[in-house]
Model the fold of this input.
Amino acid sequence: MVSRILIANRGEIALRILRACRTLGIEAVVAYSEADRESLPAMLADEAICIGPADARRSYLSAPALISAALVTGCDAVHPGYGFLSEDDAFADAVRAHGLTFIGPPADVLDKFASKAEVRRLLATHGLPTVPGSGLLADEEQALAEAARVGYPVLLKPSAGGGGKGMRMVRSPRELAAVLPICRSEARAAFGDDSLYLEKWLEDNRHVEIQVAVDKYGHGVHLWERDCSIQRRHQKILEESPSPAMSAAGRKELAERAIKAVVAAGYENVGTLEFLVDSEGNAYFIEINCRIQVEHPVTEMLTGIDLVATQIRIASGEPLGFAQEDVPQRGHAIEFRINAEDPAHDFRPGAGTIERFNAPGGPGVRFDSHAYVGYEVPPYYDSLLGKLIVWAPTREGAIARGRAALSELIVDGVTTNVAIHRALLQSEPFLSGKFTTNLLDRVGGAAFLAAAERPG
Amino acid sequence: MPATNRTGDIAPAERTPAERAADHAALARLADTLVPALAGKLGAGSLGEIEIREDGWAVRVRRSAPDAGRRASDRSADRARHTGLPGHTGPHAPHAPAQAPVAEPVASSDGPVHAAATAPVVGVFRPGLSVGARVRTGDRIAVVDLLGIPQDVAAPVDGVLVEVLAQAGDGVEYGQEVAVIEAAAPKAAPAAPSTDGEG
Done:
């Protein structure tokens, strides 16, 4: 087992990793940027070391600074957290080359699972359903034939693309013929490559993901699903498990197919497979996240398994130590992401100093946060201030605990998105469990809040 | 005896040359009359920082960190360092472009101006020049090895190297003070932070 870990991250996840280290009897050194000198993880760590300026490119994204910090503080391992360099195979490789253990999948595994298109092909060969689509489209005739085969509406996508550029949703052959040349020229302009392909457009979908853990010896388990359909601008803000949209048989089947496929494909360590689930309950694999995720506590509440400790043990070369039948899905858990952002103003991020603060408590309530009174929220990084996770034997019970806990949460001095969570817990689609990923974006944050405030 | 820093900041965005000259004169006056008094006050009390504003200028005197290593336990004394970075005009103002941390001239209350040279990266310290060496601004005083690649510790001012704060082979963090320069011309220091174009 590793004995001293450099935590190469910040905020609540740095604190979460620190807690896992403490429970495993491992020393923890927190690497911080100048903007995070007063942060809670830096204060609570066994040691803290400044790695660079506020600019993440010279601190949390600087592989040399992080590895150098690990070496001068006598660490034998590096935990990258999420975001930043967590899925960077070159970083993982450099960490290993300096004699340190990377807490995550080994570099070659990260490399193998890096390309979304490649991973979809790979996992499809191991039995996972993927979004129906075409290969590269040679001409209009082929595009029309492929679209007819896949079924309208379809999404036309540049092969070299990213970030939504050059993508068009089309509902008919006529529309497809009209936009094909436009998409080609947009793709050429944006990426220097005009090759296009198309995918089935899944209109009212949900986002469901399967948590997995696989040790170095090919022994893997799934830890059930999380439903992350409550999003704003494609960013999750509330996650829960079990998914209210899946049947007991459906979730078991999907989870079993997922773990079987990733073990066969050679995955290692903790990871998450993301799926789109359509209105008929069909699941399509979209990508794998080779890291710990923000919403991992939802799974921890249901299974009682510490996922960060599991990451550390697997990376240290230990066998998983538990079997599939040791992973219960007990009760219901909901996570509310508390972000420093204003839901009434287009989720504009905020910064400032926390003047008053109270963390909720009580049975079935967990609050993972680096916030404290006097903490200055720096403007340089993501807006996540903390995560409220509630658990109860039933979904109704969890919602009731969520309401109670949100009413106890006080964060003064910084605008937060708490209002949107309170509104969600009043909204009919959420309460009935019948919602899709566009619940908030269809109307916008401000309108959603206004609707919740109207009596009746 | 507490060491104190002085910084002239909040330079107005656009000033004519004449106004700027007046600013400098005002700043020099403030520095000569106020700084010693403020330094005395700071030394006697428990305040970390005192700021006086006059004619659009401010003089801020603050206690420097007692421990350059900045472990969690004594970091509170260091708070003023990054909350009062020059160039901040509001809560959302970005930091100055990423450069090695700015070493501020440090005046002890009885005269000579000292400036700290800081580690440009986190790494292993290797000494270079010896105490007593004369340096020009930007000269290499020592290096910090970043995974075997030496990065210069540069002299922040013209002067004489009077102290090296780290030992060969020490691990140092980014921004850690590793050497002290006694500035060649103490009177030049108050004018030095006339941060034109900053703010």
Notes: The two ends of chain B are 32 Å apart (CA to CA). The longest strand of chain B covers residues 57-63. Chain B touches chain A at residues 70-72, 75, 78-79, 82-83, 91-92, 94-95, 98-99, 101, 121-124, 146-147, 149, 171-176 (CB under 8 Å). Chain B has one domain: 4-91+103-188.
